[in-house]
Amino acid sequence: MKGHRFYWNCFFxxxxxxxxxxxxxxxxxIFLLLLTNSWRAFERLSLTSFFSLTPxxxxxxxxxxxxxxxxxxxxxxxxxxxxAIAAPxxxxxxxxxxxxxxxxxxxLLKPFVELTAAVPSVVMGFAGIVLVGPFLARVFGLPNGxxxxxxxxxxxxxxxxxxxxxxxxxxxxxxxxxxxASYALGANRWExxxxxxxxxxxxGLLAAIMLGMGRAIGETMTVLMATGNATAMPQGFFSSVxxxxxxxxIEMGEVATxxxxxxxxFACALVLFLITLAINIVAERVAARWRKRxx
Length: 295
Known about the structure:
By secondary structure, the protein is an all-alpha fold.
């Protein structure tokens, strides 16, 4: 019996190890694929022209332009706008669920928040077109509501479950001894939340925000449908924008293989890959620091 259990344990351990290394291999393979094809783009384009503010217009007949400055700005506007909305809401909801809400209400709200992550992005994009966009146009007197603010609001909703889940775990990981010591010194619930719990879980909350940002920056269909897809440099949140993800999704299926345009799209994907990877690495390091402090 013990020998049988030993073999099963070895099987599962080796399976997990193979899965882990396979994930690493896939990630490295994707990076190499993007890098090799992007390198061909930079054989034809300079880095300064690629990262310039010249509008992205590869289909121009006389002088095609491949500047991704406007695309980066559109990605930044929608992502940072989403985090500006979702971070305070998500952290506030995490504190409410963990520290304030009665058990019955918490058991009702938490599954609902987690289920919102399952809403398809195309449904969110459709909601942006028929609900959020027209509402913004009426409120702010705009010709249409397909702009960066529309995309930011939708991305905030999509990032919220990630932020709430990770932030709630961070709040719950604060040792009870800290709170009990605070109460013993005469602090009330709100003083304990602000002066004890919040500083103790700060790293975990920052990790939640970074993971939410990674979720927002990689979204494709929602921003493709709801932001207007203008490739000009945006002037603010009321401008129509196009993100890097939307550009790759729109153009990759129609571009001729082997052209400068084709390889430039790989370069766009490589930039997005590196940005997302950097965000997730920072989030993981912050989370590891938080877990180490909790131990």
